[in-house]
Amino acid sequence: xxxxxxxxxxxxxxxxxxxxxxxxxxxxxxxxxxxxxxxxxxxxxxxxxxxxxxxxxxxxxxxxxxxxxxxxxxxxxxxxxxxxxxxxxxxxxxxxxxxxxxxxxxxxxxxxxxxxxxxxxxxxxxxxxxxxxxxxxxxxxxxxxxxxxxxxxxxxxxxxxxxxxxxxxxxxxxxxxxxxxxxxxxxxxxxxxxxxxxxxxxxxxxxxxxxxxxxxxxxxxxxxxxxxxxxxxxxxxxxxxxxxxxxxxxxxxxxxxxxxxxxxxxxxxxxxxxxxxxxxxxxxxxxxxxxxxxxxxxxxxxxxx
Amino acid sequence: xxxxxxxxxxxxxxxxxxxxxxxxxxxxxxxxxxxxxxxxxxxxxxxxxxxxxxxxxxxxxxxxxxxxxxxxxxxxxxxxxxxxxxxxxxxxxxxxxxxxxxxxxxxxxxxxxxxxxxxxxxxxxxxxxxxxxxxxxxxxxxxxxxxxxxxxxxxxxxxxxxxxxxxxxxxxxxxxxxxxxxxxxxxxxxxxxxxxxxxxxxxxxxxxxxxxxxxxxx
Lengths: 305, 218
Known about the structure:
The complex is a heterodimer of chains A (305) and B (218). Chain A is 73% helix and 8% strand. Chain A contains 9 helices and 4 strands, in the order H-H-E-H-E-H-E-H-E-H-H-H-H. Chain B is an alpha/beta fold. Chain B has a domain of 64 residues. In chain B, 32% of the residues lie in helices and 25% in strands. Chain B is built from 7 helices and 10 strands. In chain B, strand 1 and strand 2 form a beta hairpin. The radius of gyration of chain B is 17 Å and the shape is globular. The model of chain B has no long low-confidence stretch (mean pLDDT 91). Classes of the chains: A alpha+beta (305), B alpha/beta (218). Chains A and B meet through helix 1 and helix 7 of A and helix 2 and helix 3 of B.
């Protein structure tokens, strides 16, 4: 058998016996990791769903181009040419002054006391432009709005710019917050796991010293502890994600209809697959780093004799 | 085989533990290292297997310059040395068989060889009937024999023993000494640290006397 594989095999066996000897400490550490990853995962779920909500609302945003009352036929035709030239434009709808007034009256019909008999039509004619679904949809709308704003015959353009801007800023804050929480939790986890591994090392101090006395390499000594740390990270994250998955299924069954009513077509989302892998990977990496720190410090103490 | 040149070792306070000592032990020799408590016997042994560092001098073991080894390659030296301690240093939660095979696992031997060699080593010290016992179930003499089996199982060219009979009565001590002499006959160089005059009485082997970190006679 290859010596590296054999060292790994012996390391794994030692890891299992370490865990058996320190069951309680191992379990406490795994549960702490599970809780921390759970908190991080919860934030991720909230973030994903807010992001989904934004995307869902974003897809409903359309550009409305209000036309001046004095727009000429050729100016209108030039505008229509511009719409056709833009590949991101999905559909256009021309709304005449009369249609706009009718729609407005229809909307206000339920409101008692609103006098709609003005004797003239104050609403301008307009074009409603829908854009194709894409990642940069709001950017395309913004760019096209800027392009069209200065065209002759255009009075103003509107697409809920301020509202989208505010929501995007909010999402940016969410991202920074999530990153901050992630970093803080990761540092906390490194401390917790490294302490658990330190306990594990001290409980086997005699054995480690003996291993070194009889010619074990530092790698041979470190492997079981590194594996233990990684195993703690892996178990903690899997338990946490399993629990979150169960809660997610329950929440989805209970609240999906309400979400549908807030944002049409939006589905209550779980953490996406790449992020699931990142969470598990991060957790294993944290376990590795934490146990590496502990074993490194211990070996340094031994080597300074 | 083993050479110390003007070695000085300080533990930080007062007089040095080893004060400019030089000595030479030839290949295949059996040497007693003796002297009163605090003479520096254990320190010499620890320096020889790279467990303690020293401030000045040179130490050569099997042609390896011990002072130049670091944590990454010290195992090359330790694999050529079998070490036996007064307190046996056995793992209480492992059986006799596991304690002996453990010494081979760290050197990445295959399982079949480990089993065979462990059995052989236990046979040499007469402990095969106790292979499944745990160290606390054994007498002091038996525990020391397990430690000897562990030290000899990798057939190292050098055996260092630090007061291996210190906790044993006269009769058992003689038995243990015979095991060392057997290993010596098989070619191992033995450095046997002891302060027991009874053990050294037959005067069959060279005696190096240390006192207050200096070689008094060699």
